[in-house]
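Most newcomers find our protein records easier to grasp once they have seen one. To make this concrete, we reproduce a full record directly below:

===
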Amino acid sequence: MISRKRKTIAPCQTCFLHVDRCICAGIPSLNLRTKISLIIHAKELKRTTNTGRLALKALTNSEMRIRGEDREALDLSDLLRSDYKTYLFYPSEDAVELDEKLVAACPLPIQLIVPDGNWRQASKVHYRHHELKCIPRIKISSPNLNPLHMRKETTENGMATLEAIAHALRIIEGAEVGSVMLKLYQDKLEATLKGRGKNSHNHSE
């Protein structure tokens, strides 16, 4: 007698995909000099299309802080450590380009504070957290040429959080690390599109 596999409705709690499309076996484990500190909105935690948490699964030198759980303001002061050169990864008007020259000028390991959420939620980390006021902002301003996206992007250089982290780590840590992280994003994207009945040849989002 052949037993049928019952489809699981709840997503995998690691990769946030349905178990028949789970990509957990392909999640790398990277112990990098660079630290990623993800500042995520509580509402974003409920979204299966979130990619920031997946990035943290792959990066052992990373942590997550949750905003918006209650009315108490989240204090991020303890992230400002003397053993890291800290940047806020946010494309504000005064943000400078993240490039090899900037990385080479850093005498310390780099910490990237990465806001995660929709544009409005992410912008509040930039505007409302006064403890980060003196932290320099950095950006990647090259256009995102990928025709497929996890969510609809509103700007030409908009990226999913994991995708943006991958490009940043390519600059800071090298091409190999960037490629590994981009593959993880591509795996997540392709599995998500498959769940929507789409594939890499269907560019309608």
Notes: The two ends are 42 Å apart (CA to CA). Residues 28-195 form a domain with the Alpha/beta knot fold (CATH 3.40.1280). The longest helix spans residues 175-195.
